[in-house]
Amino acid sequence: MIFAVFSHKGNRITEVSVSGHAGYAPKGEDIVCASVTSALQTVVNGITEVLKIPADVQVEENKITCTLPDSSQEGAAQTLLQALYLQLSLLKEDYPKTITLKNLEV
């Protein structure tokens, strides 16, 4: 199971943390894991490399966390994070036993 946690302060997403494995197919063949990984990498790279927002990105075994600082460019980062949430929601609809989404107010 993939666990994705989106932390919010009001309407602002402040952090996303994704961990686990989908378990949809054997390692290296799991299209759900590949889809989640690709979407997450695109968003994190968009925030850090394209928007140049100094987000704190932590990569651990089976877990990636991206924490946003207070930023004047948060509008674009928020759009990317909302798109990630939408993508993961759609994957969850198609593969309901592989992804859990959680929203936390911090």
Helix content: 25-40%
Structural category: alpha+beta
Rg estimate, integer Å: 13 Å
Task: Kindly report how far apart the N and C termini lie.
Answer: 24 Å
Question: Strand fraction band?
Answer: 25-35%
As laid out across the biggest beta sheet, the strand order is 3-4-2-1-5
SSE order, one letter for each helix or strand: EEHEEHE
> If helices are DSSP runs of H or I spanning 4 or more residues, what is the number of helices?
2
| Largest sheet: number of strands, sense, barrel closure | 5 strands, mixed
Counting DSSP E segments of at least 2 residues, the number of strands comes to: 5
Give the averaged pLDDT, no decimals: 94
Inertia-based shape: globular
Any low-confidence stretches, pLDDT <50, length ≥5? none
What brief labels describe this structure?
alpha+beta
What's the topology here?
Elements: E1 2-9, E2 12-20, H1 31-50, E3 56-60, E4 63-67, H2 74-94, E5 99-105
Parallel strand pairs: 1-5
Antiparallel strand pairs: 1-2, 2-4, 3-4
Helix pairs in contact: 1-2
Question: How does this model look, in words?
Answer:
By secondary structure, the chain is α+β, with helices and mostly antiparallel strands. It is 39% helix and 32% strand. It is built from 2 helices and 5 strands. A 5-stranded mixed sheet has the order 3-4-2-1-5, with helices on one face. A hairpin with a 2-residue loop joins strand 3 and strand 4. It is globular, with a radius of gyration of 13 Å. The two termini are 24 Å apart.
